[in-house]
């Protein structure tokens, strides 16, 4: 059974929500767009034991609270356009492996198809 440890809007990309969940010794980090339930991407990592996964999640959550960099949320371009900008930023971060994940991303597996991400990024960028 998945247990939610943290859920918040990430500071580096406006309107992107990050959720950290745990299921026994598996840690999940998912990203979604506020206002679009179909825009969802997930990473996971299997740990040796439940305690190790909890420690990693707690350390990550505590370190994230110290980050003060805010993404630029523009009220001038409108909510829909900001959603598109945030989608593109998240997809680029996935393709470039630049998302902030526990353990510096080491051992985390993207639970999806990067070809799909690349195709979606191309389509959104051409709008």
Describe it.
The protein is α+β, with helices and mostly antiparallel strands. The protein has one domain (3-125). It has 3 helices and 5 strands, in the order ββββααβα. It is globular. The chain starts with a strand and ends with a helix.
- Derived structural class: alpha+beta
Helix content: 25-40%
Taken together, the total number of domains comes to 1
Determine Rg (CA atoms, Å).
15 Å
Quick one: overall form? globular
- Tell how many strands the DSSP assignment holds: 5
SS summary, helix count: 3
Task: Note the beta-strand portion.
Answer: 25-35%
Order of strands across the main sheet:
1-2-3-4-5
Separation of termini? Answer: 40 Å
Q: Could you give a short account of the major beta sheet?
A: 5 strands, antiparallel
Extract low-pLDDT stretches: none
Average pLDDT confidence is 91
Helix-strand sequence: EEEEHHEH
Keywords:
globular; five-stranded antiparallel beta sheet; 35% helix; 127 residues; alpha+beta
Produce a short descriptive summary.
35% of the residues lie in helices and 28% in strands.
What does the secondary structure layout of this molecule look like, with pairings?
Layout: E1 3-9, E2 16-23, E3 26-33, E4 36-46, H1 50-65, H2 79-95, E5 109-110, H3 114-125
Antiparallel strand pairs: 1-2, 2-3, 3-4, 4-5
Helix pairs in contact: 2-3
């Amino acid at each position: 059974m998945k247990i939610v440890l943290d859920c918040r809007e990430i500071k580096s990309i406006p309107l992107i929500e990050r959720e950290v969940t745990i299921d026994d010794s598996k840690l999940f980090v998912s990203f979604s767009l506020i206002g679009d339930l179909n825009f969802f991407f997930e990473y996971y990592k299997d740990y040796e034991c439940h305690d190790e996964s909890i420690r990693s999640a707690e350390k990550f959550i505590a370190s994230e609270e110290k980050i003060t960099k805010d993404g630029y949320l523009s009220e001038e371009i409108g909510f829909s356009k900001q959603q598109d900008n945030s989608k593109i930023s998240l997809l680029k971060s996935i393709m470039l492996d630049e998302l902030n994940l526990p353990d510096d991303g080491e051992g985390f597996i993207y639970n999806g198809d990067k070809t799909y991400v690349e195709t979606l990024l191309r389509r959104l960028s051409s709008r």
